[in-house]
Amino acid sequence: xxxxxxxxxxxxxxxxxxxxxxxxxxxxxxxxxxxxxxxxxxxxxxxxxxxxxxxxxxxxxxxxxxxxxxxxxxxxxxxxxxxxxxxxxxxxxxxxxxxxxxxxxxxxxxxxxxxxxxxxxxxxxxxxxxxxxxxxxxxxxxxxxxxxxxxxxxxxxxxxxxxxxxxxxxxxxxxxxxxxxxxxxxxxxxxxxxxxxxxxxxxxxxxxxxxxxxxxxxxxxxxxxxxxxxxxxxxxxxxxxxxxxxxxxxxxxxxxxxxxxxxxxxxxxxxxxxxxxxxxxxxxxxxxxxxxxxxxxxxxxxxxxxxxxxxxxxxxxxxxxxxxxxxxxxxxxxxxxxxxxxxxxxxxxxxxxxxxxxxxxxxxx
Length: 365
What we know:
The chain is built from 13 helices and no strands. It is mainly alpha-helical. It folds into two domains: 80 residues; 243 residues, Heme Oxygenase, Chain A (Up-down Bundle).
């Protein structure tokens, strides 16, 4: 069965151009925010004081931040584009950001300095226990689908928040950062944009490639990972943290991608599914050297005071990756789905053996 073709995006200049579908609420604040966004700009919004009662990594806070940030990307269907810069909405977002940032700083207190953190990241442990090790050693096709569905919130916009830091860099750091981003955006070839390559991977896995399709399915740990990129990217004061996050991604991606390419190959996920990660094995090994030598080295030469912020970005990325991986592997080891709602799967190539199916997986024909 072929995947349904997403409806074409409207070519309109009105304030309510098509975008992702608004998600389901996950708490009182997100419920009130969604109700406001369905109305006219200026509709009463939740009180920013509600942020003081929200846990920094909670479902409600992370969804509120995700919604606010998405207004700077593709937006939502039926939501007036003028909401993007509504002053009251920015006040709410700012309050939630402060709670989130405080949680990130608390969770990474005592992190190593920049050089020590970078050196640690390039050393592969003999007995790795992270999620990519789990998927490489024992992951099944249904677990790879769940992983890809959640990670689609990240990979379908992966390079976009990073681009916000480019006008905040100078000289060698700026040139090197832009060179890596050029590769992420396909080096001039739309079919090679890394977000498109991930969509191709999703197609091989029988997943819907529509942007934002799995927002309701993703847990707060995945939302926090995506929100951190947006938080760092949108604030000039956090440019060092964004560079640290970028360095963490490029430094750890090559060995992790090798493991995931092997998992895709072992489970017969499909050529595009394997290619996405195989492509990153070589590309990110090169990027790692460029980022460390020229992006970080160039930025330190210009602004040495940002070293601690870069180390914070490295540590925060590792912390959120660990939280995400722990949630998925813990639930899988208990035989449970990691998703908040079941996948609606349509497989274009093959039906998996029954021991690879999960209850509630939807259409497997």
